[in-house]
Amino acid sequence: MKYSPMLKINLFSLILSVLLLSSCGDGKQIDSSKIAFDNVLKSKNLDSIRAKKDELNAKQQEITSQLKAINARITTLDENSNLPLISTLTSKFEPFIHYIELQGNVTTKSLVTLRAEFNGLLSQVYVKKGDKVIKGQILAKIDDGGLAQQIAQMEIQRDLAKTTYDRQKRLWDQNIGSEIQYLQAKSSYEAQNEAINQMNQQLAKTRVTAPFSGTIDEIFTEQGNLVTAGVALMRLINLDDMYIETEVPERYITGVTKGKVVEIEFPVIGKSMKSRIREAGNFINPSNRTYKIEVDVTETNENIKPNLTARLRINDYSNPEAILIPQNIISEDAEGAQYVYTLKDVANNIGTVQRVDITTGQTQGNIIEVESGLTENMQLIKEGARSVKDGQRVRIDTIE
C-alpha cells in the first residue's frame, strides 16, 4: 500500500508520540523506567519479572491496536488508496521466430515386398534375413514345372522353322517358288519365335531377383512351400535414402516450402537433427486440405527405421522487429475488434487507463505478435486488464 509523503510524515509523528506517551512523560521518566526495567531483570524475584512481562505485553497490544486505527484512518483520507491496483509491462521491439509443429513418419522409396509371380513349389531360397544383396541378384527360385524343357523343345522347332524360312527367302529373292510358300515359312518362324519369347517371360517369373541393392529385412515364405502368384516371399529394404513424410495444412503453403530448415526429433530414440524440406507437394488433398512434404534424414543411425515417428519444427515466419504481448491481456468488443489497455498521464505510480485498438498476427504459445496499434515503450496493463475501463484512474503495483 502506497501513501502520500505528508501522510507518511504524520504517521511517523503519531506513532512516535504514542510510544513516548505510553512510556513516560519526559527524558527523566525514560531513564527511570529503564533503570526500573534493569533492576527487575537483574532481580531474582520471579513474580516481579512476570509482572513486568505482563505490563509490556499490555503496552504492545495497545500500540498494535492504535496502529490499526491509524492505518484505517489513512485509508479513509487517502483517495488514491481506493484506486484499483494493476501491474504493467512495457512494449518493445524484439525478434519473433514462429514455428509450426508437425508429426511425420520415416519412410523410403527403396522398400518393397517381393511377391511370387508364378504358381509352384518354392524350390530354392538363396538368402536369409539380414543378408546384403545387389540389384539383379537371384534371391529365390520357384519350380517351373517343366517349362524350361518345353522352351528347349520349342527352340528346336524354331531353329527348323528358321532354316525353312531362310531357304524360302533365298529362293524368293531369285524369283523361284511361290510367294505363299515364302510367306508361310516367314510366318511360321516368327510365330515360333514369339511363342518362345512369351515362354521365356513366364520362366523369368520363376526367378525372384532384387530390384535394387539393399538388405533382406524379412523372409515370409520358407523354402519347400507351395506358392501362388501374389504371395509375399520376402521384404527388401535400403536405408541409404530415408526421408520423413508428413502433411501440412494448406494455410502454411506460402511459409512451408522446398528448402526450409527443419528441426527433427525422434522421441522414441532420443535423437535430434536438422534438415531441409527436399520436396513440397503440388497437390492439395480436398478431403483434409493438406499437402505433403518430404524431409531428408541427414544422419545415419541404426535405430532410425521406416515408420518411426518424428516430430518436426519448421520456421514458417520471422520478424526481426516485432512487438510481442501475452494473449491473455487482449480483449475483444461486440464487433470483434481487439484492444488492450495502456496507461497515460502517469505520475507517482498513478495513471489513467486508455483503450488502444490493435491488429494481431502470428502466435507462439501464449505470445502474440501485434501488427499495428502499439509502439515501443508503451505501458500496457497486465494484471488487472480485465477489471478496468477506459478513462479510469488506477494505481500501479511496483512490487514484482
Strand order of the largest sheet: 3-12-15-14-13-16
Terminal Cα separation, in Å?
14 Å
The radius of gyration over CA amounts to: 47 Å
What share of residues is helical? 25-40%
Contiguous uncertain segments of 5+ residues = 1-12
> What integer is the average pLDDT?
86
Shape: elongated
Structure annotation, total helices: 5
Biggest sheet character: 6 strands, antiparallel, barrel
Number of distinct beta strands: 22
Secondary-structure class: alpha+beta
What fraction of residues sit in β-strands? 35-45%
* Helix-strand pattern: HHHEEEEEEEHHEEEEEEEEEEEEEEE
Structure in words:
- With 400 residues, this protein is α+β, with helices and mostly antiparallel strands.
- The protein has five helices and 22 strands.
- The protein has helices at residues 5-23, 27-42, 46-77, 147-173, 179-204, and strands at residues 85-86, 88-90, 93-108, 111-115, 120-125, 132-133, 138-142, 207-209, 214-219, 226-227, 232-237, 242-249, 261-266, 271-280, 290-296, 309-326, 331-332, 338-347, 350-364, 367-372, 379-381, 393-396.
- The protein has a six-stranded antiparallel barrel with strand order 3-12-15-14-13-16. A four-stranded antiparallel beta sheet has the order 4-11-9-6, with no helix packed on it. It has a four-stranded antiparallel beta sheet with strand order 8-7-5-10, with no helix packed on it.
- The two termini are 14 Å apart.
- Residues 1-12 have low confidence and may be disordered.
